[in-house]
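Hi,

I'm pasting everything inline rather than attaching a file, because the server keeps stripping attachments. The sequence lines come first, and each chain or strand is labelled.
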Amino acid sequence: MADEVILLDLWSSMFGMRVRVALAEKGIEYEYKEQDLRNKSPLLLEMNPIHKKIPVLIHNGKPICESLIIVQYIDEVWHHKAPLLPSDPYQRAQARFWADYVDKKVYAPGRKIWATKGDEQEEAKKEFIEILKVLEGELGEKPYFGGESFGFVDISFVTFSCWFHVYETFGNFSIEKECPKLMAWVKRCQERESVFKSLPDEKKVLEFVYFLKKIFGIE
Amino acid sequence: MAEESKVTLYGYWPSPFAKMVEIALKLKGVPYEYVEEDLTNKSQMLLSLNPVHKKVPVLVHNGKPIAESLVILEYIDETWKNGPQLLPMDPYKRAQVRFWASFVQQQLQDSMIKVAMTEGEAREKLVEEAYEKMRLLDEGLKSFFPDGNPSIDTEHLGLLDVVFVSFFGNHKVHEEVLGFKVIDPEKTPLIHCWLKALLDLPLLKETLPPHDKMVAFIKFINESALKSSTA
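And the predicted assembly:
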């Protein structure tokens, strides 16, 4: 019996993109269902009654929620191809730690950079750059966060890269200038089919943010 | 015990995050050295072991540090095979356990803290929100205890049991200090039974901080917070 895999997602969500990249890395065929978060579908509400958020992966009728939990699930079910987590328990713990760091730290200041002004925006920008520098430090001289292979931490963070243009535009700074090694890593990741096929064009994301600011009345 | 395989846990006695790790180590029968950290005066050792977050718990094994409680728990489960298996083998069940563990640790804990930090009318709304989250967990538990009767023994404890008992094992402390029934047998019957079964296990009951000590600690924290917000 063939697997039925459905992804409930929003094209601009860096969290949804993580799942898209993981599915692509594993070569899994799936049905993509774009969600309207201002008018949530019965399917979304049924599959994620707790958080009512995307992404949700529905595998043979059973829902899995929370992007990093979904990526680990994908890695465990389709374990015969392209392992996303290392096999050594200590290395795995390090991978989980850094993916958790990205998950906890990056989104909020990033959002403040485009959604706020003045001191609040400046603070957020400083915090954001600081976080990027910590990640750049962790990357070190490695081609990927996972070492020689693209993996869990890379997936958790690379999806923010299509939002960099948004942060740079509103924050008036250059990520390349602040973290050149990180940008080199971004370019390296973007050469992978799973990444360039899963991430939207950064200009489209910027347009979307202008639209969001307008409809939410954010100056 | 060879220096290499030595296990050290850097913790803080009232921290449920550190408690989770202690319980996991005990369940697995792993000998370890416990180092109490004073979070108002963090040691150089802690800062060097966890420079990113500067928090407890930190587990050091084979000279290598691991931070973040849920990450540590999975590491413990993967490294030591005696005692109960904290995560199930089936990927779907694992995903569910991870989801609810994160829910308890972030969402529920967050709600409790908000209630503790608020007074007056706003508090009522936050209490209702906390109950709503508890109800969601109660509903979610139905897939773990399909016959509605949680019977637990130490051989079969899982990650979610460890997480929940660490955060809510001392619920009577929260009830005394916050003045609302955190675990309400009518609102959340399954949670109530589950927690009762967990607290019946001596290993868990003995590892949790003593009631009075915890009450004094929480009162002190709340008073300090109040003082600093009115200063």
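The interface with chain B takes residues 49-50, 59, 62, 64-66, 69-70, 72-73, 76-77, 89-90, 92-94, 96-97, 100-101, 134 of chain A (CB under 8 Å).

If the labels don't parse on your end, tell me and I'll reformat.
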